[in-house]
Structures are given as C-alpha cells and as structure tokens.
User: Fold this.
Amino acid sequence: MIIVYAPAGGEEQHFDARSLRVSEVSIVARTIDQKWPAIQQGLGDEDLDAMRGVAWVIKKRAEPALRFGDFDPAVTELSTRLDKTEVESYVTSAVLVARQEPDVTEDKVRALVESIVLPAALDAEHAQLAIDKALAEAPKDPGQKQSVPSSSDPMSSSSETGTSGSSPTSSTSRRRQSTPS
Assistant:
C-alpha cells in the first residue's frame, strides 16, 4: 500500500507501507493507539490516522527530528494507492473469480476490474497492462475451472492477505503467527 502525500503547493510524496520495519510499526501503533491489523485495515479504508502515522514514521527516516505533531497534513492531502504487487494480485484473483460465472462476458469483466483497480492503482498504466495480461491468460470457458488461491493454502502467494474480494485496498501484509499455539 502506498500512502500519497500531496501537500498544497508542494511536491507529491509516496510512502510505501511495505517498507516499514517492525520497530517503525511499533512506533506507529503506539502513536495512534492502534494495533497493526487495524492500521493495515485503516490504510485500505483511507483512515487519516493510519495514513498520517505511517507517512510520518517513514518521513522520519530522512528527518529524524520530525515530531508527530509537526506532521499535520490537510485532510485532502493524504490518500492511498495500490502498489504493483497488490494490483497484480487483485486483478488476477478478480478475473479468475469473474470467469467462473458463465453469464459474465469479457467486456463485463474488463469494465468491472478497470472501474475498481485503475482509480486505486498508483501506476494506472501498469494496472492496465496487468488487467490485459490477466484477461488474456485466464481461462475463458467457465467449465474450465481454475483454482483461485485460497487463504487455507499455505503455499499460495496470496494466503492470508486479509484483502476482501470487493476492496482492492483492504490490507497489505500477510498476517503471520509468531509462535505456535
């Protein structure tokens, strides 16, 4: 997930939430009084506290003295966008799921995926290429079932991402159990 900070009269800045270190996540969590899963969900929902906290911690890398209170963007200056990996994962899954429905045409699949992914992607050109590729590679015959990665498959590249099928900006990182139960 990319946080876009577009200050009025300033240069747009991008902050990649996937680049956070565990220590930085702890700082964000303490600062905005939320646990990491809630922060991840908040990024997908464009929660201002989550976006501000993550952007602030990443900005501190270059400006170590920057205080949270000193980084106070206007409401309209923060937004989130999907990175390339998130776009590809969402597009591939969405196309495979849509192709399972016998009455869904190629044009309907394309229109639906484009309407969701293109506005949410940081790189719309890359997103369009990913959509074109997924549509070209996915089976067109609904009788030809292709497995969609599931959260129960530990070898799946999209296992337990926490993303819903309807929102491409739900969550970014895999949840992992740190110790056996």
Remarks:
- The mean pLDDT is 82.
- DSSP finds six helices and three strands in the chain.
